[in-house]
C-alpha cells in the first residue's frame, strides 16, 4: 500500500501529525532490520553483570568495571565488595568513611542512568537475599533488600497460600532495593509504584548505624526516615531489609490490539480504566498504536511469569490477538 502524507491544518494554526500510510515492502525490511538489531544487541551488548565474579576478581586485586545493563554507563570502582552480613557491611562502611571514600550500592545495573556509579567503593547485596518471614494473614513479607524481584516472586508463589507482589515493572531481574530506589512501577491506573507497598525498612547509614523505621512508626524521626528511604535514590545509606504488603496470587490474561493513534488518545482514560494493565506503543509514521491490555484473574495452573519474554508464553489470551482493528475502527 502506498500513498501521500496528509497534512491537516486547522484554522487556529494547529497542525495534525502527518499520517503516513505504511509501505508494506519497506515495513517488512524495517521489521527484519529491527529484529536483527534487537537480536544482536541482546546477544552481544545486554550481557548482565556478574557481581559475584566481580567481587572475586576485586579481592584478587584485579581492576573490575561495573556497567549499566546496556553498557552505556561504566566505571571502575577502587573496590567491588559483596558483604554477606551486617558485621561485614558495617566494617566496610566505617573503613570507607575513615578513608573518605564514596560508597555506592548496585543491584543489577538496570538503571538507565549513572546513578549507581562510583570510583570509590562499590557494594552489591546479592548475598542479602533471604526471605525472612511471610505473614499470610497480614499479607506481608519481610526480606533482605538485596533479593532479586524474580526470587521474591518465586518464593511468594511457592507459599501456601500462594502470594504475589502487588505490581512490578516489565522486568523482574532487578534487586528489590534497586527497584525501590528509583520508584519502579508497573502499569495500571489502579496500582501504585512498588515503594507504596513498603511498610517497614532497615537502613545502614554511611557511619555504620542501623536505623529501622516503619509507615506508622511511633518515633516521628524514624517515620520521617522511612518516608525518605522508601524511594531513596541510593543516596541515604544501604537498604538492608524491607517489609512489604503482598496480595493473593493471580494470573494474567492479555490481548494485543492495533488502533488508530487518535482513537487511543481520545479514549485513553476509558481504555486504561477498562483493564488492569495497559501498555501503549506508539508506532511512528503509521498513525497507529499497539495496545497490550491485561486483566487479572484468579490463579490458574499457568506457571508464574519471570519476565516479559516468558510472560508472553505463559499468559493466556482473551479476545483477538491477531486482528488489525485499525481499519475497522477508522
Ligand atoms: C529493560 C528495562 C526495563 C525496565 N522496566 C521498568 C518498568 O517497567 N518500570 C519501571 O519503573 N522501571 C523499569 N526499569 C528501571 C529499573 O526497574 C530501575 O532502574 C531499577 O532501579 C533497577 O534496579 P537495579 O537492582 O538494577 O538497581 P541499580 O540500577 O543497580 O541501582 C539503582 C539505584 O539503586 C541504588 N541501590 C541499589 N541497591 C541498593 C541498596 N541495597 N541500598 C541502597 N541503594 C541501593 C543504587 O545505588 C542506584 O542509585 C527498567 C529498566 C530496564 C533496563
From TrEMBL:
<dbReference type="InterPro" id="IPR010031">
    <property type="entry name" value="FAD_lactone_oxidase-like"/>
</dbReference>
<dbReference type="InterPro" id="IPR036318">
    <property type="entry name" value="FAD-bd_PCMH-like_sf"/>
</dbReference>
<feature type="compositionally biased region" description="Polar residues">
    <location>
        <begin position="317"/>
        <end position="330"/>
    </location>
</feature>
<dbReference type="GO" id="GO:0016899">
    <property type="term" value="F:oxidoreductase activity, acting on the CH-OH group of donors, oxygen as acceptor"/>
</dbReference>
<feature type="domain" description="FAD-binding PCMH-type">
    <location>
        <begin position="73"/>
        <end position="249"/>
    </location>
</feature>
<dbReference type="Pfam" id="PF01565">
    <property type="entry name" value="FAD_binding_4"/>
</dbReference>
<dbReference type="InterPro" id="IPR016167">
    <property type="entry name" value="FAD-bd_PCMH_sub1"/>
</dbReference>
<dbReference type="InterPro" id="IPR006093">
    <property type="entry name" value="Oxy_OxRdtase_FAD_BS"/>
</dbReference>
<dbReference type="InterPro" id="IPR006094">
    <property type="entry name" value="Oxid_FAD_bind_N"/>
</dbReference>
<dbReference type="GO" id="GO:0080049">
    <property type="term" value="F:L-gulono-1,4-lactone dehydrogenase activity"/>
</dbReference>
<dbReference type="GO" id="GO:0071949">
    <property type="term" value="F:FAD binding"/>
</dbReference>
<feature type="region of interest" description="Disordered">
    <location>
        <begin position="302"/>
        <end position="330"/>
    </location>
</feature>
<protein>
    <submittedName>
        <fullName>Oxidoreductase</fullName>
    </submittedName>
</protein>
<keyword id="KW-0560">Oxidoreductase</keyword>
<dbReference type="InterPro" id="IPR016166">
    <property type="entry name" value="FAD-bd_PCMH"/>
</dbReference>
<dbReference type="InterPro" id="IPR016169">
    <property type="entry name" value="FAD-bd_PCMH_sub2"/>
</dbReference>
<comment type="similarity">
    <text>Belongs to the oxygen-dependent FAD-linked oxidoreductase family.</text>
</comment>
